[in-house]
Amino acid sequence: MKKQVVIIACSGIGKSLGTVGRVAMYKVTDQLRPKTTRTVCLPLLTVGDAETVKLVKENPCIAIDGCPAQCSKKNIEASQGKLAYEITVTSVLRENRKLKPEGVIELNPEGDQLAGILAKKVAEKVDDILGEEKQ
Amino acid sequence: MTLAKDKVGIICCSGEDLPEGTISRVATRLVLEKLRPESTVTLCLPLFLAGGEDERAFARVFPTIAVDGCDKKCSEIGTRKYSGKPAATIMVSEILKKHPQIKATSREKLNAQEMEIAQEVAKEIAKKVDELLCNQTKK
User: Fold this and answer.
1) Which residues contact A30 (CB under 8 A, 6 or more apart)?
2) What is the pLDDT, as a whole number, of residue B92?
3) Alpha-carbon span A79 to A42, nearest angstrom
4) Residues B72-99: pLDDT tens digits?
5) Nearest to B75 by CA among B91, B96, B61
6) Least C-beta-crowded within 10 Å: which of A21, A33, A103, B95?
7) Distance separating alpha carbons of residues A103 and A64, to the nearest angstrom
8) Do B14 and A44 touch (CB under 8 A)?
9) Number of domains in chain A
10) Residue B3: pLDDT over 80
11) What is d(CA B93, CA B24) in angstroms, rounded to the nearest whole number?
12) Contact B14 A74 (CB under 8 A)
């Protein structure tokens, strides 16, 4: 099977930051890089699902975390996955202070815009990672 | 540790890869925001592994309801493994089986039919919250 980058967003449902991360992940896996990326449910790593643990060990992973708790990054590391890149929504928010995300079930337009910026960063990173893997 | 007698913890699977996970997430938020805002709290499931003892004590502090998208039951298993046995489990996939005409396909944003399912799941959660709080009051 062709190698893909596994993008794992945090499951944050307490704040809109988690939703920004999730929406960004869907923008990458569904629109920007559908052929070279995929996602998995983060809770499957939390419970140690064998198939999912194998997937993150065999493929480069990108963690997108909503908050400093960094659940995605820590769950990938605890599963001994290949963490190739990590990014937090808060870091992108700091660079785009005018975009205040609101909403957990559904993001406001500013939140969606922030997710778009984050998604572009992640898509570029996907290209870098796959380029490095080929060398 | 004292038991929070007036709150129920809702832990949803949030499964990002499946529409059922999104339904579990939206249903949980509907309960927290609209149906039972005063009597429910939540915790992100992956925090059981990423967090510390405070997070792992969650199910010892609150009676919990696990809301799972699929039969992998990450929420029920994760809560039991790291924190304590959930008082109840609600399965989105089981509720979807009652509506064979609806095929859940959206992961990012639910369509109108999927939102109806999320509302039905939310009502089931709220019903269970009331039962748990009623049982605690009787004790």
Assistant:
1) B107, B108
2) 97
3) 11
4) 999 999 999 999 999 999 999 999 999 9
5) B91
6) A103
7) 18
8) no
9) 1
10) no
11) 10
12) no
CB pairs under 8 A between A and B: 101
pLDDT at A79: 97
CA torsion through residues A90, A96, A97, A101, sign? negative
Answer whether B13's CB lies under 8 Å from B26's CB.
no
Instruction: Find how far residue B42's CA is from the centre of its chain.
Output: 8
Indicate the DSSP class of residue B14: -
For position B139, what pLDDT does the model report?
62
How far apart, in Å, are the Cα atoms of A60 and each of A32, A38, A50, B94? 18, 11, 17, 34
Report in angstroms the alpha-carbon separations of B133 from B39, B92, B130: 9, 22, 5
A14:B42 CB<8 A: yes
With a cut of 50, list the residues of chain A below it in pLDDT: none
3-state secondary structure of A91: helix
ipTM of the assembly?
A: 0.90
Query: What residue in A sits closest to B68 (Cα-Cα)?
Result: A43
Contact A69, A17 (CB under 8 A): no
The domain containing residue A19 runs over which residues?
5-128
Q: Which residues contact B30 (CB under 8 A, 6 or more apart)?
A: A105, B118, B119, B122
| A134 belongs to a structural domain | no
Q: Establish if A93 belongs to a structural domain.
A: yes
> What is the model's pTM?
0.92
pLDDT score of B4: 57
The model's pLDDT over B51-60, given as tens digits with 9 standing for 90+, comes to 888 889 998 8
- Amino acid of residue B116: E
Note whether A71 and B46 are within 8 A (CB).
Answer: yes
CA distance B12 to chain A (A): 9
